[in-house]
Structures are given as C-alpha cells and as structure tokens.
Amino acid sequence: MDDLSPALDLPDHLLVLLQENPEGCSEYALIQQLKRRHSTHIPNLPLTDKLVLFRTHFLVFNALYLLRDRLWAEASGHLQISPLHVQLLPYASATAGLCEQDALREYYLDLSNLKDTGEDDVERLLASFWTRMQGSDEKRAALELFELDRSVQPLTLELIKRRYRQLVGLHHPDRGGSTQRLQSINLAMEILQRYYR
C-alpha cells in the first residue's frame, strides 16, 4: 500500500481510506490502515497503553468530526461515525427543523479534552464506562469492546469465544499488554456468556 501524503491532514487521510472502503469499517480498522500507510498524524505506538489508545482514538474522532462538518458544508457527503462502523454516505439535504445538540461532537472538537486528559483520567473514564453500562446496556458495551456488530454477522458463542481468545492474545500483560485492558476483556466475556449460550 502507498504511504499517505504527509501534505494531507488527518481528515483528508481518513477521507481517502473511507473512499477506498465504501461499505465502511471500524475505527480500529481505520487506525490500522493509517499505521500501515505511515500516517504521521497519529502515534505509531502499540495501542496496549491506555493513554496512547485514548490519544489515538481522540485524534481519529476529532478528524472524523472535522471531516463530517466539512463534507456537510460542501454538500458533498455525510459521515456516519461510531467506533464499530464509520462510513462515508452520499449527501442528503435535511429538511429545516430542530437539531439535537451533539455532545460527542463537541467533546471531540474541543482539543483541551485531549491535552488535559492524563492516565488517571483514562482509568476513571474506563471505570465509569463499565459502571454506566451495567444493566440493559452491558451487552452492547461488551460487544463494542469485542468489536462485534450483531447486524453484520449472526453472533454465536463460538464466534465470541474466538474473538475473546484473539483479544486476550493481543492484550495479555505477558505480551506487553495492559492488565486493566485484560480485566475489561474478561468482564466483557463474562457478560456475553450470560447472553449467548
């Protein structure tokens, strides 16, 4: 694969990748493609460190929201943004009406959230994520952590176990991974085993 031009900014790099993947892809897949193409806009470090993971995620989502705003202003496309599925869609004008405030957009476009977030803050964000996801949202949160989308493929316990083994191998502390991340993966597996038998 070709290197991405260093003259392009990160939103432009993402636009190139999304145009090459019209069916869309996950945030993780975008990050891996950026790394393979030697993008200088994201840290070229393993995502096993929580702070590196947060900063990489933040930079990508900041660029995605900037790109979505630009595409909308140019009336040239629409960007569907979520960690599991990012997709470039054709532009469709909206009818006039009330717009909901997009709190995620505001968060990711405020660069002070990147600058002011340290390792302890990331730990608290991860802990509060699981606390908020207890109850009816815990299944969805566990599927998101495993990067499994129910609409793309039928989910079975065997598929979930296979993904669990992949994630454990990737994030195990003996292989340079994070103990905290491994604990989150184990918790997600416990949750999913309750739903898929």
TrEMBL record:
Protein origin, superkingdom: Bacteria
Gene3D superfamilies: DnaJ domain
Pfam families: DNAJ_related
InterPro entries found in the cross-reference section: DnaJ-related_N (IPR021059), DnaJ_domain (IPR001623), J_dom_sf (IPR036869)
Keyword Transferase found: no
Keywords, in A-Z order: Chaperone
Occurrences of domain J (ranges): 141-197
CDD domains cross-referenced by the UniProt entry: DnaJ
Membrane-spanning intervals of the chain: none
Protein name (Swiss-Prot/TrEMBL): Molecular chaperone DnaJ
